[in-house]
Known about the structure:
Blueprint: H1 2-30, H2 38-52, E1 56-68, E2 74-86, E3 90-97, E4 101-106, E5 110-115, E6 120-125, H3 130-140, H4 148-151, H5 155-160, E7 165-174, E8 177-185, E9 189-196, E10 203-210, E11 218-227, E12 246-248
Amino acid sequence: MQSTLRKHLEATFIWCGSIVVLASFALAVQAQPAGIDPEAQRLMKESTDFLASQKQFNAETRNTLEVVLNSGQKIEFNHSARVSVQRPDKLRAERTGDLVDQVFVYDGKSLTLHNPQDKAYAQVAAPDTLEAMLEFARTKLDIVAPAGDLINKNAFDVLMDGVTDGFVVGKAMIEGVRCDHLAFRAPHVDLQVWIQEGSQPLPRKLIITTRDLPNAPQFAVTLTKWELKPIFDAQTFSFVAPAGVNKVDFLPR
């Protein structure tokens, strides 16, 4: 009986202690001044510049999309992705999960989307740089490339567009890596970014919360693995349609 009571008291103490810590943290965050903290801006710029300087890399991600039903109930969908980049004009991304099974290939001349389960692919001529292709895919085809905002060499301008407030939340551990946790706010979107400490300030996690939609759905990307010196072969950024796969057209936006 005494042992049970002790465990109950210990659990209550831990719970109350956690509440105190959370309350103290909430007050500290609320005390943050308006505007963008120069340190948060510096850390973000350092990270995006570092990634833009990498001539080629692989990244593996774990992605979560949280949607909100009309009833207010939240539903979560998950997928994983592997992204390979060779600047200035090569990209391959493979995504599999709850809502998607897709291969995205850009070879500097054409953009191909292949849906293996549907036994179909679409291919279109594309601009000759990675950044121009990303803009073309978004504006003309209504397609957002996996991790497109991060791999863009102008990632800092893209991610900070319209941002009015930002601060350093503190330190955190993501996938066993110590990071700086940053939080930014734009008129309709909140952005959180976790950036690896040290000489390789790689992004390790992003959360995008859309505030101008009911119940603020959000999308999270955890970068589980980075490889900055990969070896690519001739097939990495090329696409050959498998037997029995039909070519279709992209739908107009």
